[in-house]
Design brief:
About 40% of the residues lie in helices and about 15% in strands. The protein is of the alpha/beta class. The longest helix is centred in the C-terminal third of the chain and has 19 residues.
Length: about 400
């Protein structure tokens, strides 16, 4: 019997390929092919043998072709092969690093969400250094159907061992009901937000909630983000948005949505204007964040900036990213500009001064300002403080500037 897992060949980095076969009467043997064998060969072999001991496996031959894989990757690949070899679901669990022990609030800013293919360790390792507000380890569309379990094990190990530098740790599971199988690999291991693709009804969300509760034995405290990707999902957007108190945002996925309605996705976005507006309205009515789709042409930053500005104008609070090079542009577009900050400061200060005089409205730059306008200005200031664009003592300083 021979089983395998992992990846090999030209262009493969930070990964490994493992084959396991019977080795009758010869004990456990490791045949290692690696450019770093002299430096790390012994530790790699010791890791493999300890995993074999954990699974109580004897008399197998492991052929391991290493392409610079870190220990958490080697452990994931070997476990995936062992699960096939033994037909077991037993897990070899790694200790969590303390750097990832942080919480995220439901209303946390989510300007950028960087998608990382769940079976690509090379892209996972440094995902947190690019400044994305959230990182989505993807188990759905970016993973080949034959590699789903391998990816789930790798994502589990990444949640435990990769430093995400404060980014929100998200995982996109597979479409329900298949995605329920993914939950055991992520729920106990530090995932903060579960992204639910192709959501079409409240039941999709409730199934996830119930399954999480079965795993943890307590009410769910993990954030949920449904993605609306079909005509039916758009029609049921508000029902989905209010399906659970753990739904903190709702996103739209335009590639699948445009295919579902029989339209071609364009840069202008006229074909998706109704759906995007519907998602924004449903999310706002439910009191959660509306998040826009990904922008596919990662080389055209000018078009990306235009799309992000249009998205913000429509009411979205963030955009999905498929490449680290998109993050800076999108973060800037969804952050308040210097001009917006100065205007907001002026509105808030002027309105508070008017209130102290018993006035309900005030003119700012020849325009009347009332409570809803002030509310938007306050949100701009709050965002500017969160993004480090404005000092928290701005009111005192700004008042002194005005004399």
């Amino acid at each position: 019997m021979k089983v395998s897992s992992g990846n090999k060949g030209d262009g493969i980095r930070s990964d490994c390929y493992i084959e396991i076969c019977d080795n009758p009467g010869a004990g456990n043997q490791i045949l290692l092919k690696s450019k770093v064998k002299v430096l790390f060969g012994k530790s790699i072999e010791e890791l493999c043998l300890s995993i074999l001991d954990f699974f109580e496996i004897e008399n197998v031959l492991i052929e391991l072709e290493d392409s610079g894989a870190l220990p958490f990757v080697i452990a994931a690949r070997l476990e995936a092969a062992i699960q096939q070899y033994l037909q077991t679901e037993k897990m070899y669990l790694l200790e969590k690093i303390p750097e990832n022990d942080y919480e995220v609030q439901p209303d946390r800013f989510r300007r950028t969400r960087l998608y990382i293919p769940g079976n690509n360790p090379k892209m996972m390792i440094n995902a947190g250094i690019y400044g994305s507000d959230a990182i989505i380890l993807d188990l759905e569309d970016s993973v080949h159907p034959s590699k789903k379990t391998e990816a789930a094990i790798l994502v589990r190990n990444a949640l435990c061992r990769v430093n995400f530098y404060g980014a929100e740790k998200m995982v996109r599971i597979n479409q329900i009901p298949e995605g329920l199988k993914d939950l055991k690999y992520i729920v106990p291991f530090g995932v903060q937000t579960i992204v639910i693709p192709k959501s079409e009804s409240a039941d999709d969300i409730l199934f996830v909630e119930q399954h999480i509760q079965k795993i943890t034995g307590k009410p769910n405290s993990i954030h949920l983000i449904p993605i609306i990707e079909s005509a039916l999902g758009v029609e049921n957007a508000f029902e989905i948005a209010v399906s659970s108190e753990n739904v903190v945002a709702m996103a739209i996925g335009l590639e699948d949505y445009t295919a579902d309605i029989g339209a071609k996705r364009t840069e202008a976005g006229n074909e998706s204007f109704f759906a995007r507006s519907r998602v924004v309205n449903a999310a706002r009515a439910a009191g959660i964040q509306p998040l826009d789709s990904v922008f596919s042409n990662f080389e055209d930053l000018e078009a990306l900036a235009k799309t992000a500005h249009d998205s913000k104008a429509l009411g979205f609070e963030g955009l999905g990213c498929i490449h680290p090079g998109q993050i800076k542009t999108v973060n800037e577009c969804f952050s308040p500009s210097e001009k917006e900050i100065e205007k907001a400061k002026k509105i808030v200060f002027s309105f508070q001064e008017a209130e102290s005089k018993g006035l309900g409205v005030v003119a700012v730059d020849s325009k009347m300002v009332d409570a809803p306008v002030v509310k938007r200005a306050q949100k701009t200031i709050e965002d500017a403080i969160v993004f480090g664009l404005l000092n928290q003592n701005w009111m005192e300083n700004y008042g002194n500037e005005l004399g």
